[in-house]
Write a structure and sequence with these properties.
It is a single chain. By secondary structure, the protein is mostly helical. Helices cover 70% and strands 0% of the residues. The longest helix has 16 residues. It is elongated and about 60 Å long. It starts with a helix and ends with a helix.
């Protein structure tokens, strides 16, 4: 059984295709795929590969975010933590000390 996220992607692909007045045959030809593949994607039986998602996004002038949605709420803190760690790695010792003091003020600790 496909996840809700997979089914939402299938619905978005179909919706965007229809908004651009494209047939499944036209999309298949543009993506060098079969019409059956596009039908399976839109019904949620097959997930598009990243390469196909990129090609579909280019074909329809869509963004990947528009197609796959935003980061799931459960994952967002991890993504933020990763971004903070990446930025902190660029700081020197004095800058890190000041950041720690600032964070302690913000968190009251």
């Amino acid at each position: 059984m496909k996840s809700n996220h997979d089914m939402e992607l299938a619905k978005r692909v179909r919706q965007i295709r229809l908004e651009h007045n494209l047939t499944q045959d036209q999309v298949a030809k543009a993506l060098d795929a079969t019409p059956g593949y596009i039908c399976n994607v839109e019904s949620g039986r097959t997930a598009m590969s990243l390469r196909m998602l990129v090609y579909f996004a280019r074909l329809t002038g869509s963004s990947l975010d528009e197609l796959v949605g935003t980061i799931e709420k459960d994952y967002q803190p991890d993504a933020q933590d990763h971004q903070i760690a990446k930025l902190c790695a660029k700081l020197n010792g004095d800058q890190k000390d000041r950041l720690i003091k600032t964070l302690r003020i913000w968190t009251n600790k």
